[in-house]
Design brief:
The chain is about 35% helix and about 25% strand. The chain is an alpha/beta fold. The protein has two domains: about 5-100, Beta-Lactamase; about 105-345, 3-Layer(aba) Sandwich (Rossmann fold).
């Protein structure tokens, strides 16, 4: 098979993920299960040939040196993929995730109304959190696209790699890829503050310096969006604080309490029909009570505020799962599997 034959079929059938491994046929993920895509088993030369057909020239040297690569790849004008190229004991492997060409609207994604309000903010820190593959990039792309469409701002995105491509609309939007246009998130964020930004997207808040710069940017009047690999709001707050040395944590709790606006945590769960995945969310809006809990290092009490904060757009992950269950969109088994507290669905 040629690279063109493979990707033409992937695009046509709209599968989410494609895996290429030596000794196996191409494998694709449909909803949640992996299955063979062609009968032909791949050799290392087959995979190397496919990679060289799709890789930009400046990344081919990295493959020759055996380095792992995490990049965004456009296949003509019809599709875009996030690709991770790596090696195992048998040879070269590739994992590709298809990125929809059209950025979906917030309502179409099933996001709660509180997320729509984030597009109207002028300052503050907003965190979108969840495990890998939970749709964080898609949520942020929809938010950025809405701001780009409705407001005249300077938007800077810092991504590794760039996934969704945003054209200039009402806003100026500059997308910078870490490893290509800048060495690191912290360096790009520090430079970005000198580029007259209104909105900054930090693709991943991985380290102390990046997190510190993001909090400072939000404190100084910018709207900052960032991601964390955390499951819920309380865990997200703790992760931010715990990155700092113990002697700095009292101060960062004060700074973070002032700068944080919203935490949206999300997961994707299989529908009752098994034909799609649905979004379940948790939303924390930093009201006075939440800010006080952060300052006082009582993050374990945040969940209580979320459970009773429906009028302010807040809810827990278990409440979101319960809503999906009550609407018969997911099964009781799924609700219990993904629940924070299994007893909630007893």
């Amino acid at each position: 098979m040629t690279a063109k034959e493979l990707f033409d079929r992937v695009i046509k059938e709209q599968v989410s993920d494609l895996h290429l491994c030596v000794g196996l046929p191409p494998m694709v993920r449909r909803i949640s299960s992996l299955e063979p895509f062609f009968e032909e088993k791949l050799t290392n030369d087959d995979i190397q040939g496919i990679i060289r057909d799709i890789l930009p020239e400046h990344h081919k040297l990295q493959i020759d040196h055996g380095k792992e690569i995490d990049i965004g790849i456009s296949i003509g004008e019809s599709a875009r993929f996030r690709a991770n190229i790596y090696s195992d004991r048998k040879g070269t492997c590739v994992a590709l995730r298809q990125i929809p060409q059209k950025i979906m609207g917030l309502n179409a994604l099933g996001l709660p109304g509180a997320v729509r309000m984030l597009c109207e903010l002028n300052r503050g820190l907003v965190l979108v959190t969840g495990p890998t593959g939970s749709g964080k990039s898609t949520t942020l792309a929809s938010i950025i696209d809405t701001i780009n469409t409705e407001r005249s701002e300077h938007i800077i995105t810092l991504e590794d790699p760039i996934e969704y491509l945003h054209p200039h609309k009402r806003s100026i939007i500059n997308q910078r890829e870490i490893g290509t246009e800048s060495e690191s998130f912290s360096q790009a964020l520090r430079a970005g503050l000198r580029e007259d930004p209104d909105v900054i997207l930090v693709g991943e808040m991985r380290d102390l310096e990046t997190i510190s710069n993001a909090v400072t940017a939000a404190e100084t009047g910018h709207l900052v969006f960032g991601t964390l690999h955390t499951r819920n709001a309380a865990q997200s707050v703790s992760r931010i604080i715990d990155v700092f040395p113990s002697e700095q944590q009292a101060q960062i709790r004060i700074q973070f309490a002032e700068s944080i606006h919203t935490v949206v945590s999300q997961i994707l769960v299989p529908s009752a029909s098994g034909n799609e995945k649905l979004l379940a969310t948790e939303v924390m809006v930093a009201n006075t009570a939440i800010r006080n809990l952060i300052r006082e290092n009582k993050t374990y009490q945040i969940k209580n505020i979320l459970e009773s904060g429906g009028k302010e757009g807040m809810h827990t992950m278990d409440q979101s799962l319960k809503s999906l269950l009550d609407a018969r969109k997911i099964s009781l088994y799924t609700a219990r599997k993904f629940a924070e507290e299994k007893s909630y669905f007893a």
